[in-house]
């Protein structure tokens, strides 16, 4: 997708014509009007900062809620009254790590192609291409599920090959066979979310994530503490809640049918699938470098969980690592939310052929990311004695985590700037440089 455009703004009235009058409410019209981009020949620093933050906050909230089940699972499993409590925590941690490496990071990484394609398409006023890119995403991410399924069904063997504790590896393998089924629903939801974000429609996804987390929390608590599933209850709860994510998104689209502008008025189902298949190479061209950027970041941290299993007291080390991973995921949701908002804003500007505004957006993004990283580091430093108590109850694990968390602040400062730099490359369609 190039940044060249035939128009500096999207004709909102043209979009509204696509919907029948009876199907468009005031709230729906407001959502559609968010697609409109005001051409700005003289970009203003304050305006761009406010615009970036307004777009970023709902995305950050959505991501934080999407990452929350991982932290929930550790917290719920970590308080089960069982002599195998520490082994359960380690198993849930290693299983989550393996799912991240073999499934989530691949799907989320490939879907970053949508950040570039959809944002520039909206900026150029060619919303009728959004459906085609969505269908290309379905083809690409759908093809990734079978390999992920096979890998997770054999997670125990991979963990044993990495010299993990046999008891923990067996428990993690059982956990993975359940949790891997959360991927199809999450992938579909991720693609829908990318298309809506490109249109600056972000609040509904935050509400959907809230509902999904409520479902997860209630199911996880009940299944872990009041059924014979024990720690596996957290895996079943996550699978169910993730499967409901696209269901809730489709309910929203039924109420607010903005999807009707995603395809040409004269399109046919067969022609659109042919067009989507033809654009799969372009999707891979952008998605694979984006995936590699994400894999290097995710895998670097997940490898630490594997290395923790090689230490003198592996059960204690993995418990500490599980808390650090959970807290890092929440901090990462802040940085990634700013990153996605930056990519959308930058892609819109380039698609509308506004290079001066794009340059200002880049500067604003780097400054905001630095402030966010400093804030997170300060919070971790001040609260490092209290945060571990939320996740684990073993005294030795708590003490070790408190010490590790105080040293963790340096990583957060580096991570925030890395996310900001990646967002600029994605917005320009230059993922290959970052990879």
From TrEMBL:
Q: What GO CC terms are in its UniProt record?
A: membrane
Q: Its GO biological process terms?
A: xenobiotic detoxification by transmembrane export across the plasma membrane
Its placement in the membrane is given as: Multi-pass membrane protein
PANTHER family xrefs: MULTIDRUG RESISTANCE PROTEIN
InterPro entries according to UniProt: MATE_euk, MATE_fam
Q: Name one GO molecular function term.
A: xenobiotic transmembrane transporter activity
User: Which residues are listed as membrane-spanning?
Assistant: 55-77, 97-118, 130-155, 167-189, 201-223, 243-262, 283-311, 364-384
Say which family it is in. Belongs to the multi antimicrobial extrusion (MATE) (TC 2.A.66.1) family.
| Key words of the record | Membrane, Transmembrane, Transmembrane helix
Q: What is this protein called?
A: MATE efflux family protein
Q: Could you tell me where this protein is found in the cell?
A: Membrane
């Amino acid at each position: 997708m190039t940044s060249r455009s035939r128009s500096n703004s999207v004709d909102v009235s043209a979009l509204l014509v696509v919907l029948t009058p009876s199907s468009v409410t005031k709230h729906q019209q407001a959502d559609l009007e968010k697609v409109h981009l005001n051409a700005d020949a003289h970009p203003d620093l304050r305006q761009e900062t406010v615009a970036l933050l307004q777009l970023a906050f709902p995305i950050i909230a959505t991501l934080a809620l999407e990452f929350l089940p991982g932290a929930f699972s550790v917290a719920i499993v970590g308080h089960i009254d069982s002599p195998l409590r520490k082994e359960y925590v380690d198993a849930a941690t290693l299983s989550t790590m393996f799912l991240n490496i073999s499934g989530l990071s691949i799907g989320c990484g490939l879907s970053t192609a949508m950040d570039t394609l959809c944002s520039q398409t909206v900026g150029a006023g060619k919303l009728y291409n959004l459906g085609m890119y969505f269908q290309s995403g379905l083809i690409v991410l759908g093809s990734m599920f079978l390999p992920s399924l096979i890998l997770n069904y054999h997670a125990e063997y991979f963990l044993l090959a990495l010299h993990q504790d046999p008891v923990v590896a067996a428990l993690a393998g059982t956990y993975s066979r359940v949790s891997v089924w959360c991927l199809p629903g999450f992938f579909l939801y991720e693609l829908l979310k990318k298309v809506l974000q490109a249109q600056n429609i972000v609040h509904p996804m935050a509400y959907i994530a809230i509902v999904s987390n409520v479902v997860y929390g209630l199911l996880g608590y009940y299944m872990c503490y009041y059924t014979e599933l024990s720690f596996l209850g957290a895996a079943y709860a996550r699978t169910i809640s993730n499967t409901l994510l696209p269901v809730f998104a489709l309910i929203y689209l039924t109420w607010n049918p903005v999807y009707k502008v995603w395809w040409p008025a004269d399109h046919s189902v067969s022609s659109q699938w042919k067009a989507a298949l033809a654009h799969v190479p372009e999707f891979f061209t952008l998605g694979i470098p984006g995936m590699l950027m994400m894999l290097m970041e995710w895998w670097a941290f997940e490898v630490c969980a594997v290395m923790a299993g090689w230490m003198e007291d592996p059960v204690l080390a993995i418990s500490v690592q599980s808390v650090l991973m959970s807290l890092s995921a929440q901090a990462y949701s802040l940085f990634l939310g700013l990153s996605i908002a930056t990519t959308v804003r930058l892609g819109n500007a380039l698609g509308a052929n506004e290079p001066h505004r794009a340059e200002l957006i880049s500067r604003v993004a780097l400054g905001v990311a630095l402030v966010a990283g400093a804030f997170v580091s300060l919070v971790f430093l001040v609260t490092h004695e209290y945060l571990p108590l939320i996740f684990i109850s073993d005294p030795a694990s708590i003490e070790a985590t408190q010490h590790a968390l105080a040293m963790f602040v340096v990583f957060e400062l580096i991570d925030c700037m890395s996310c900001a730099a990646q967002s600029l490359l994605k917005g320009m369609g230059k993922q290959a440089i970052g990879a």
